[in-house]
């Protein structure tokens, strides 16, 4: 037995490792952290293609290929090729007949010539009159039969792809078989309309006539789709011609079907197909700009492919509400771009599906949202970016594995709980593993393996470290988007949330967004958060909410950080409504500064990061710093995260 090894070509490599969807999430995270929404970030990812998979095409690559093919099809040729060839054969037959009649001096010859002179200009009408003409010239008779064979092949090929080859050498038996096929097909469609059709009926039909359908449909629905798309393309071809061309070709089609005894069956078939697929563009004109005349079957094929490509282009753009990759027809992709494109599309679908199945994305009421799991990963990414931007020589949070971060050891231990940052008590953990029966048989050399479960772990207790109540107040007003600072503010909020959750789990962090009103932002909504297209910077309301958070944690060290690009222009009235006025009213400033004074009495230092250099904003923050003793920073948007995180770490170290 011989074996041959080579490159695998029948689809994606079955031995290739699965794609890591976390890389896709990180790629989306870059867009989300730059201010995009999860929906747009996923759409952009699918358009660009999978990161780290250069051999896979994205939707944009497929879209470019589809548009190139559409352009090539439009420049392929003209639609009137069959008319032109029919006229040429008709003129040739008449010329051959005239050449035969010219030497004959008889009256019959002159009468025949007069009849030929009086033929209608319309090709179909002329062919109709000559169908009963007794040709003198055998060459003319042969040319005329060639014309009729051409029309029969082209007309049937325009309805059934592949019949042109089947009728290359027509005989009465072949035509009778086609008549019987159309009769059986119409009967099967009628039976299906009465809900009496079975797959066995279709299999029997294909067993008898399968060679006439090169597409090899697997069931009646697929056959109907094939025939309907081709019939619709024929109607679009007629609609794309000039009125005179349309009338002439229509007459030729009807005349040819009558002569073949197929007119009634074709009419029945057309009505059934239209009733089943009215969604197809049956009469939409299409423009072909090429110079080469196309045969009728070739023109219909070109228009059929153009319709497929037009629908495929719409689906690949994914720019309509609720768009999903499942909307893209894989059969249309295979017809237009080949098998490899289907594999690329399936890879993109798998990423979209895996992001949902692995708990990173959630569709809720038709809206795509990031899950808390995804937000945590994006927060870690944002935090990593911040630390990467910090000066490597600066004192601070470098990894140091030999230093405890939770205070002095007390000598006792307790069971490990999720979120603990105390060091593991290795001895007691191993003893617990042995006691619970986790000892494996001795290995070679006398070594013994101990299997540990989560319940076996113990941590060494340490002195309690001071916890902090952290409030980050982020401006969500429209001006943040106009100045291009909103993406940096969102990234900073995610980074601070991730920092506190990972390194200071005992801290209580609250992120508050404010525009005309203020509201507490939950961690899982931070990534998908967008700025508010409203008027008002209600810092008064934000400080009220922050004060309540600090009051709920009286034993915690208070940390208040404010990110804004404008002075307060709104405040909360007694009835709970927001009052907006610009320039800021005296009442707005008074109420806001009163909350600043309350923060000062709570021993909470307010550090402000201002993202604009307006004179009124400078005047306001200087007054806040004077009353509260906090600091004022004026970072660029690119360095906002670095400033906020560094200041938070400085405050934590100082306490």
TrEMBL record:
List the InterPro entries.
VWF_A, vWFA_dom_sf
Instruction: Give the highest taxon in the source lineage.
Output: Bacteria
CDD domains assigned: vWFA
The region called Disordered is annotated at 393-415
Enumerate the Gene3D superfamilies for this protein: von Willebrand factor, type A domain
Q: Hey, what's the signal peptide range on this chain?
A: none
Composition skew (Basic and acidic residues), residue ranges: 393-402
Q: Which SUPFAM superfamilies match?
A: vWA-like
Q: Which residues form the VWFA domain?
A: 467-650
What's this protein's name? VWA domain-containing protein
Source organism (scientific name):
Nonomuraea marmarensis
Which taxonomic lineage is given here?
Bacteria, Bacillati, Actinomycetota, Actinomycetes, Streptosporangiales
């Amino acid at each position: 037995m011989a074996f041959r090894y080579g490159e695998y070509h029948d689809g994606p490599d079955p031995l290739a490792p699965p794609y890591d969807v976390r890389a896709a999430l990180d790629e989306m995270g870059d867009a989300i952290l730059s201010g995009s929404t999860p929906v747009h970030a996923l759409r952009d990812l699918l358009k660009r293609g999978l990161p780290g998979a250069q051999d896979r095409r994205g939707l944009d690559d497929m879209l470019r290929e589809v548009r190139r093919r559409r352009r090539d099809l439009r420049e392929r040729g003209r639609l009137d090729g069959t008319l032109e060839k029919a006229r040429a054969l008709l003129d040739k037959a008449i010329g051959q007949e005239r050449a035969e009649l010219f030497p004959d001096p008889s009256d019959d010859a002159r009468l025949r010539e007069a009849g030929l002179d009086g033929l209608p200009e319309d090709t179909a009408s002329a062919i109709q009159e000559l169908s009963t003409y007794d040709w003198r010239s055998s060459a003319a008779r042969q040319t005329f039969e060639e014309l009729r064979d051409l029309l029969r092949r082209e007309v049937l090929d325009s309805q059934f792809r592949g019949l042109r080859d089947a009728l290359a050498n027509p005989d009465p038996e072949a035509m009778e078989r086609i008549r019987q096929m159309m009769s059986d097909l119409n009967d099967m469609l009628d039976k299906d309309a009465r809900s009496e059709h079975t797959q066995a009926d279709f299999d029997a039909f294909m067993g008898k006539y399968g060679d006439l359908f090169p597409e090899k449909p697997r069931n009646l629905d697929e056959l109907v789709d094939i025939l309907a798309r081709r019939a619709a393309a024929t109607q679009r071809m007629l609609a794309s011609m000039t009125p005179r061309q349309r009338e002439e070709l229509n007459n030729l089609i009807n005349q040819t079907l009558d002569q073949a005894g197929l007119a009634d069956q074709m009419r029945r078939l057309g009505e059934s197909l239209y009733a089943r697929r009215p969604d197809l563009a049956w009469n939409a004109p299409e423009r072909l700009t090429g110079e080469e005349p196309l045969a009728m079957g070739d023109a219909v094929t070109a228009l059929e492919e153009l319709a497929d490509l037009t629908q495929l282009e719409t689906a690949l753009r994914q720019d309509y509400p609720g768009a999903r990759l499942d909307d893209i027809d894989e059969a249309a992709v295979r017809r237009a771009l080949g098998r490899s494109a289907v594999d690329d599309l399936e890879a993109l679908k798998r990423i979209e599906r895996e992001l949902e199945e692995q708990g990173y994305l959630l569709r809720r009421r038709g809206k795509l949202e990031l899950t808390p799991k995804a937000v945590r990963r994006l927060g870690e990414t944002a935090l990593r970016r911040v630390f990467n931007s910090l000066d490597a020589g600066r004192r601070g949070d470098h990894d140091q594995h030999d230093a405890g971060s939770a205070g002095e050891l007390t000598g006792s231990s307790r069971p490990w709980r999720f979120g603990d940052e105390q060091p593991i008590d290795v001895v007691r953990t191993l003893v617990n593993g042995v006691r619970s029966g986790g000892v494996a048989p001795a290995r070679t050399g006398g070594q013994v393996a101990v299997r540990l479960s989560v319940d076996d772990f113990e941590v060494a207790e340490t002195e309690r470290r001071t916890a902090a109540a952290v409030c980050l107040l982020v401006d969500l007003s429209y001006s943040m988007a106009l100045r291009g600072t909103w993406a940096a503010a969102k990234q900073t909020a995610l980074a601070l949330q991730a920092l506190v959750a990972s390194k200071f789990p005992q801290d209580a962090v609250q992120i508050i967004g404010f525009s005309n009103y203020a509201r507490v932002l939950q961690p899982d909504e931070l990534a998908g958060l967008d700025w508010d297209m409203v008027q008002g910077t209600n810092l008064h309301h934000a400080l009220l909410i922050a004060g309540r958070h600090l009051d709920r944690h009286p034993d915690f060290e208070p940390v208040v950080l404010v990110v804004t690009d404008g002075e307060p222009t709104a405040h909360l009235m007694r009835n709970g409504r927001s009052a907006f006025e610009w320039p800021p009213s005296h009442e707005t400033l008074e109420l806001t500064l009163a909350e600043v004074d309350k923060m000062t009495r709570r021993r909470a230092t307010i550090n402000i990061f201002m993202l604009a250099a307006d004179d009124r904003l400078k005047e306001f923050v200087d007054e806040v710093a004077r009353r509260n003793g906090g600091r004022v920073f004026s970072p660029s948007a690119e360095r906002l995260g670095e400033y906020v995180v560094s200041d938070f770490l400085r405050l934590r170290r100082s306490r």
